[in-house]
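Dear support,

I submitted the protein below through the web form. The confirmation email said the job was done, but the results page showed an empty box. After a refresh the structure appeared. I'm attaching both so you can tell me whether what I see now is the final result or a partial one.
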Amino acid sequence: MFIPKILIIEDEIGIASFLTQGLQEENMNPTHCLSGEDALQEICKQKFDVILLDWTLLNISGLEVCKQIRSTSNINSKTPIIFTTAKDTLEDTITGLQAGANDYIKKPYAFSELIARIQVYLRANSKDHLVNSGSISLDLNTLQCFLDNKQINLTLKEFQLLTYLFEHKNRTCTRKEILENVWDIHFEYDSSVIDVFINAIRKKLNLDKNDSRLQTVRGVGYISKNV
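What the results page shows now:
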C-alpha cells in the first residue's frame, strides 16, 4: 500500500499539530517544517507527494519558498504545492499561482476540503510514477518497492525487472525480450541469469511459483497477471 508523503510548512504549532494528526488519520505520512529555511533544506533530502505551504512564514515568506522550490534544482521542483493562507484577494491568489503554486486554499478551511484537494494531486501523481500489482507497489521516482505497506529492499536490477513485468501485465514477456529491455543485451546470452533474479524477487516478496503476479511460462519467459 502506498503511503503519500506530505510536507507541511507552517509556523503556527497548533495548526501544524492539527494537520499532522489529521493527515496521519488519513493514512498519510506528514513531515512538518516550522520555517522556510528548514523547508528548503528538507526538500533536498526526500521526495514528497504534496507540499502544504503557509504564506505568512517568518524570515522567508511562503511566497519566496515557493519560488525557490520551483527555480532551484531539487527533487521536489515539480511536487504539487498548495498554499494555505488567510490572504483572500484575487490579486493574492494570482500572485501565489504565478510563483509556482498549483492550488490555493483560504483559511479557515474545512479539513475535508483540504484532503479532497490533496487527493486530486495524488491521483494525478499515481498515474505518473506508481506501478501496482495487488499488495505490491513500485515507486518509479524513488525506486522503492512496498509489500503490504512495508518497504522491501530490491537491488536496482531486481526493481527494473519487476517494473518491466508489471508494466506489461497479462502478456508473456519472452526471455529474449527481457534481456534486451532490462539488461540491454542484444546478442545470444545465457538467459538463466533472469531465473536467478526472479527467484531472488520471489524470496523477498514471499511469492510462490503459482502467484499470478510473477509466473513462469515454461520455455518462453515470464508473465505478471492482474490480481
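Response: this is the final, complete result; the empty box was a page-load delay. The radius of gyration is 22 Å.
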